[in-house]
Specification:
Blueprint lengths: L1 E5 L4 H12 L3 E6 L17 E4 L5 H8 L4 E4 L6 H6 L1 H22 L3 E7 L22 H20 L3 E6 L2 E2 L12 H11 L4 E3 L9 E2 H13 L6 E5 L7 H12 L6 E3 L14 H7 L7 H24 L1
Parallel strand pairs: 1-2, 1-4, 2-3, 4-5, 5-6, 6-10, 7-9, 8-11
Helix pairs in contact: 1-7, 2-4, 4-5, 6-8, 6-10
Bound molecules: nicotinamide-adenine-dinucleotide (NAD) and uridine-diphosphate-N-acetylglucosamine.
Length: 319
């Protein structure tokens, strides 16, 4: 099968591309490398087509989509606080970019588009766990853009018959998540703090919770969402069903590494939701999705990956 993966040089994207290639599929990656890295694709570089370009340019999107059967649309600006700071640019990339992908997919008559949606669509709905039957109430510009992407996908299904599935990922973490930006995900930053023995920063009291989900589970869901029958127009939670607080993450990392770091507590971030936990029964039923790797196992694998990557970088700089 021929796949286009937008954002395929990013964290979830490159892990997904690896799996597609290992299953023998043909893959085109479209990525502007704004947060992704070509290095993530180094090992499979001669097996894929890489196009450096932006989803905000419809001509580039059309070119990348030529002959694609499935499109996994992951390119986005992913940070909640960054969207609070700059909602216009987040909207341009996440909403206009998604619209371009859908328009090109309709024109090229692709079999299905899978959209990277987000648990941030739920916002502050009080009930836990979050089920897809709840009315979304996003509270950050980022959450709004991700929800709009879902609605556009569904509208394209109704108006043009374009098959589409939206996956609401819940806090994905794992190898290749960038720890270096102020907007990076918390687990990447905490792993870096434990490696470098710097002080982790917790926003708020650290008792907020997230359904931290190891990346292999998201990759599995991506592939299932392309293949499952009779799911077009549907939205699925992709999580584990658990929830863990930043304070618990720090305790778990202390156990994994044998180190204890004292955190610095800063005020809560604007646009942050308090708690998040996925009800994954719909994904189980319709996609056959079962999380393969739990939180603690995933965190151990992730920390080991950062540690070995740091060791390799150090060895390189010494030669
Ligand atoms: P990431 O930043 O590693 O990946 C995003 C990729 O998109 C990067 O490679 C980046 O260079 C690329 N990109 C950004 N703007 C682009 C543009 N205009 N044109 C082309 N490429 C562009 O982040 P990620 O965590 O891998 O996120 C992937 C997707 O999953 C995003 O859509 C994000 O909103 C969604 N998501 C992620 C999480 C999570 O916890 N990581 C949770 C919910 C949803
Ligand atoms: C993350 C994703 C977002 C996704 C959403 C829903 C990133 C950068 N963000 O957002 O794309 O749609 O999950 O699944 O991947 N925190 C700290 N210290 C830090 C950083 C964060 O305490 O150094 C706290 C935050 O205030 C927040 C929690 O940890 O309460 C999680 O933050 P973060 O990792 O940025 O993820 P989300 O904002 O949940």
């Amino acid at each position: 099968m021929r796949y286009l993966v937008t954002g395929g040089a990013g964290f979830i994207g490159s892990n997904t591309v690896d799996e597609l290639v290992s299953r023998g599929h043909s893959v085109v990656v479209l990525d502007d490398l704004s947060s992704g890295k070509e290095d993530h694709l180094a090992e499979i570089r001669n097996k894929i087509t890489f196009i450096k370009g932006s989803v905000t340019d419809i001509e580039v999107v059309r070119k990348a989509m030529h002959e694609a059967e499935y499109v996994l649309h992951l390119a986005a600006r992913t940070s909640v606080p960054r969207s609070v700071k700059d909602p216009i640019e987040t909207n341009r990339i996440n909403v206009d970019g998604t619209l371009n992908v859908l328009v090109a997919a309709k024109e090229m008559k692709v079999k299905r588009v899978v959209l990277a949606a987000s648990s941030s669509a739920y916002g502050e709905t009080p009930t836990l766990p979050k089920a897809e039957t709840m009315q979304p109430q996003p509270i950050s510009p980022y959450g709004v853009t991700k929800y709009v992407g879902e609605l556009y996908g569904q509208a394209f299904g109704r108006c043009y018959g374009l098959e589409n599935v939206a996956l609401r990922y819940f806090n994905i973490f794992g190898p290749r998540q960038d720890p270096s930006s102020p907007y990076s995900g918390v687990l990447a930053k905490f792993c870096a703090a434990f490696l470098e023995e710097t002080q982790p920063v917790v926003f708020g009291d650290g008792e907020q919770t997230r359904d931290f989900t190891f990346v292999d589970n998201a990759v599995l869901a991506n592939l299932l969402a392309c293949e499952a029958p009779n799911v077009s127009g549907r939205v699925f939670n992709v999580g584990t069903g658990g929830r863990v607080s930043p304070n618990q993450v720090l305790l778990t990392l202390a156990r994994i590494t044998g180190k204890t770091l004292e955190a610095k507590y800063d005020p809560p971030r604007e646009g942050d939701i308090r708690d998040s936990q996925a009800d994954i029964s719909r994904a189980r039923e319709f996609l056959g999705y079962r999380p393969q790797v739990g939180f603690e196992e995933g965190l151990t694998l992730t920390f080991e990956w950062y540690r070995s990557t740091q060791a390799k970088t150090q060895a390189k700089s010494e030669t």
